[in-house]
Amino acid sequence: PCELACYSRDESGEVYFDDRRLVSNPACHAAILQLLMVVQCLGFC
Questions:
Q1: Nearest Cα to 41, choosing from 24, 26, 20, 23?
Q2: Could you tell me which of 31, 38, 34, 29 has the C-alpha nearest to residue 6?
Q3: What DSSP designation does 29 have?
Q4: Quick one: which of 1, 19, 26, 33 has the fewest CB in 10 Å?
């Protein structure tokens, strides 16, 4: 399977490296997506 890592930016403009592998709970994914605007996602196969 491919690994998905994203660079995300919050409202203040701070950029975070968001490793999706660290979040296994779909509800947590939804919360993250609501709080952070994804800037770029990279898939590694």
A1: 20
A2: 38
A3: H
A4: 1
pLDDT the model gives residue 8: 66
Q: Which residue carries 């800037």 as its tokens?
A: 39
- What is the C-alpha separation between 2 and 13, in angstroms, rounded? 28
pTM score, whole prediction: 0.27
- Contact at 8 Å (CB) between 5 and 17? yes
Spatial neighbors of 40 by CB under 8 A, at least 6 apart, are: 6, 7
Return averaged pLDDT per consecutive 10 residues of the chain, 45 residues in all. 61 67 57 58 55
